[in-house]
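Researcher: Go.
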Amino acid sequence: MAFECRATTINDEPALIELLTRVFDTDRQAPFVNPALLRWKYWEPREDYPQPRSYVLEKGGRIVAHIGLWPVTLRTQTKSETGVHIIDWAADPEASGSGVFLLQRMARMFDFVYAVGGSDATQAILPKFGFLRTAEAQLWARPIRPWRQIRHRQHNDLLLPLRLARNTWWSQMPRKAVAPAWALEEMDDVSSNGLRHLAPERPPSFFQYIRHCPTAQSRVYRVLHNGHAVGFFVLGVIWEQARVAGVWLEDSSPETWNSVFHLAQDVALKSTEASELSVRCGSEHSIVGAQQAGLRLRVRIPVFVFRKDGVNEPLQLPFHFFDDDAFFLGGRSFGFLT
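Model: Structure:
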């Protein structure tokens, strides 16, 4: 009996939850199968991408595999390419080949498919299907409320007092100074500030969409230098973690990145109750800026890319949290980075 591929609808929610929890050996309390999050990920309308964002394979009327899409369109002066990061990729072990069939189907539908990290099994299988490791995303973090952080840790152990002492010292370590010329201003509408050219891959409607996310609260901040707008970033909060979800700048010098990460820590302390700040870095200048701002490298994440045209070149993406599902996943079940 042949597979049948189709886009999902909200009516598939119960069957999709059953498949995902069974394949990933978890229960219905797992954050990624939160019904509200599933509806937002796959079925809430997106002006920047009105096409389906979730597909299943059926065999004999039963769902045997699923693949979710986190789309992005890269634009240059000469071309436009649409690609997807794959999420919630799952296949029934009894339906041999179903997961690979879906992946290959997506590879034919889009200009590129990319994966940021993933399980050990995923990272092992992707190169076998033409995915190339083309980049690395680095996860940096710093504790900002160490006492609160200790109270919200998942596990207590004998190292807890040492960890508290380390994080208290770390949170108070001096950072490279930022000139008083730098400031922030919270934004309500990305489309009306003259900065939309900085993020051609993320149109204003995308930022309206992410504000509806049921698991991450987001705020957009304009970065000012001597009163002039020079960029913007999004601060997302999940559980006790504040994440610099995406940054777009006129000038990408280490000084500017240091200033942005410095300001992000300050606004996280003033406007959230988060215990920890984390950022993703994909460029040399952003890495230097993170180090100068007192953050430390915690995780190195490989990036894999498959291009339909076979061209071996990196994607022009910074691989911030917004570039995959790391923006809206995490929290207590993942624990702290520091």
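Model: Residues 138-299 form a domain with the Aminopeptidase fold (CATH 3.40.630.30).
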